[in-house]
Amino acid sequence: xxxxxxxxxxxxxxxxxxxxxxxxxxxxxxxxxxxxxxxxxxxxxxxxxxxxxxxxxxxxxxxxxxxxxxxxxxxxxxxxx
Length: 81
Description:
Helix content: 25-40%
Largest sheet: 3 strands, antiparallel
Oligomer: single chain
Mean pLDDT: 91
Low-confidence stretches: none
Radius of gyration: 13 Å
Strand content: 35-45%
Order of helices and strands: EEEHH
Shape: globular
């Protein structure tokens, strides 16, 4: 059986000399062994608020949500903010 784990991603952008950091979510399959974890889905550039997205990732992991819910979760998160 494949296990699913949610994780935080970080992307740094630069435009016209200005830097911006944004966070996203990646969904990993079989992440128990770091060398074999596979990214099965991800959404980048969700928010610059690392703390809020970290909390969301922790909730997804504690509820053991399936990867099919990723887009719904992110949509709810964005409309809530």
